[in-house]
Each structure stands twice: as C-alpha cells, then as structure tokens.
Amino acid sequence: MNKIPKQLSQEQLNYIENRYEYKDGLIYNKKRKKIVNGKFVGKNKDHLAIEFNNKILKRNLYKHHVVWFLYYNEWPKKQLDHIDNNPKNNNVENLREATDQQQRRNQPKSKKRSYSSKYKGVFRDKSSNKWLSQIKVDRKCIHLGRFVIEIEAAKAYNEAASKYFGEFACLNVF
Fold this sequence. Notes:
This protein has 174 residues and is α+β, with helices and mostly antiparallel strands.
C-alpha cells in the first residue's frame, strides 16, 4: 500500500514528459534510448522507484506513478493499486486508482503471522471445532457462518467479498 502521491509542479511534470516515455510496459529514457529500471525502496524493499537528481526534480518517485503519468498524461489523484498485488508489475494495465479502503480490501492474507487457516476470512473456532467465516465491511464484522470443511468457509468469504468489494475483492485461491 502506498500513500497518495504528492503533486508535482508543472515544470517537474514537463521534465518527466520530455525525457521519458512509457512503451510496452517499460519506461525509456528518450535521450539515452535506455530502459529505466529503478531501485527497490519502501519498508519491505518491494516497490520500484526512479531516482531523479537534478535542479528541477531532486527526489525518488515510485515507478508506477511515473508509468501512470506517462500513459495518462496526468499525475495520479489517488493511491495506485497493483491489481495483481505484485508491486513489481508496473504495467499500466495492472494499475488503478484506489482509495485507502479499496487498497485494504485488495490485500491478500498476511504471510507474516501464523493463522489457524490459510484462507482469508477463515478462522478455527475452538469452541465448536468448526471453521468460522467472516468479513469486515465498513468497520463492521459480518459473520458468514461456521463450517465443518475449511474450504467451504473460504468459499463463503469469496462470495461475500465479491458482493461487498466488487473488483477490489482479493479472493481465496483453491
């Protein structure tokens, strides 16, 4: 997840537009005719950034923000979401503007914590020895039921996520 991109001045946008182009999923330096790769930044070193170091623009910019600008000719107004949840895939077809809430809905289950289930929205209910399925919508927890089979609870979550989150639903894969 990333923050809303800071707006750049018109001079900075012109600098990017005049020196770089987006083509076939890549950013090219027009003058050097070379691909701009970027470097990994962020807390988990999982997002690519392009370093600009000149009089007009002296900072790092997320590569997916630059891709968006070069393709749509406007700086993103909201956060950008990677549809496939892969922050290294900066193809314009994999990017969409999203609110912070939409970004959270599209997050896969964390692999850093240990859970009773491998599926998003599914937990082991120790008192009944069944799988509990639930989803959080607008800060309210909706219980979807208890299931004997774990995958059935995951299917219930997927159905609810599709209903409530639409295109931003991050569904369990079986």
